[in-house]
Amino acid sequence: MASGRHVTLLLLMLGYAGWASGGCREAQLSRDCEALCSFDQHGQVTSCELRAAVLLVNNSKYEISLMKVMPVLDLAVAKARSMGLLPYWLKLTFFPQDDGCDATYAQIGAIDSYSSCVHVFFGPACDYCVASVGRITKFLNAPLITTGGFTYDFTEKKVTCADEYFMTVRMGALSFRDIAFVFIDQMKRNRWKKMHLLYDTNGQNVVAGRHTCQLMMKSMVQFVKKEAIDYGTFDVDSVHVKDYPEVLRDHIGNVYSGQ
Ligand SMILES: *[C@@H]1O[C@H](CO)[C@@H](O)[C@H](O)[C@H]1NC(C)=O
């Protein structure tokens, strides 16, 4: 199952590499290494290489990190080769870059990889990094393929240059939008009309980096707003765990509790 997925990813990548031309702006950065294959003076192919940047955090505390992903990519390549899906003449090279799960480093990492002539970006996984790299890849004309990008902005339409994250492909199975839909469905099923969102801004930061829970709540609010549901929010960031019972009494109390 898992390997099926990696193979899909490789195929996607190959598909893109063939398609990449044009891009979202007139002026192209000069780069003489776009082509997959190099030729000798007689026009004979000498070698073909697909280069992929892997932009991830180099810290195994995160769910998705270079340490965990690089070996998996190697396995995926071996599997795709053994299944005959990757042409034997095509070399696949990965350029790992540590983005520190930080938007600025991710962007610089993307630019550095671009100057190493990459055709495609894998990652980043942290949401703010996907945002900063996703906004520039459409101008670099190289697709960004990520299993991250959970906030609802990334689930919006991405089919033309005018779309913010055009050239970003989400491979993940779940986004914050889907989690919001699960809650909203439960609310409807039970005919519940009031919702209070208590969250810790930086909770779960090993999943999508800084503000993971805040971004989850932002996505939640985006969809709850459209329903006939009264909602309130409270960020427990500055509250000590031992004070949670009091916070629950104050914020939920008999405003949000039922009979
Ligand atoms: C990741 O960290 C390891 C160990 O600290 C180091 O050897 C490796 O060069 C780092 N990789 C990158 C791409 O920064």
Automatic annotation (TrEMBL):
- Mind telling me which GO cellular component terms the entry cites? membrane
Q: Which controlled-vocabulary keywords does the entry list? A: Membrane, Signal, Transmembrane, Transmembrane helix
Alphabetized GO MF terms? peptide hormone binding; signaling receptor activity
Localization terms from the record: Membrane
List the SUPFAM superfamilies hit by this protein, alphabetically.
Periplasmic binding protein-like I (SSF53822)
Which superkingdom, per the lineage?
Eukaryota
The name this protein goes by in its record: Receptor ligand binding region domain-containing protein
Q: What is the lineage of its organism?
A: Eukaryota, Metazoa, Ecdysozoa, Arthropoda, Hexapoda
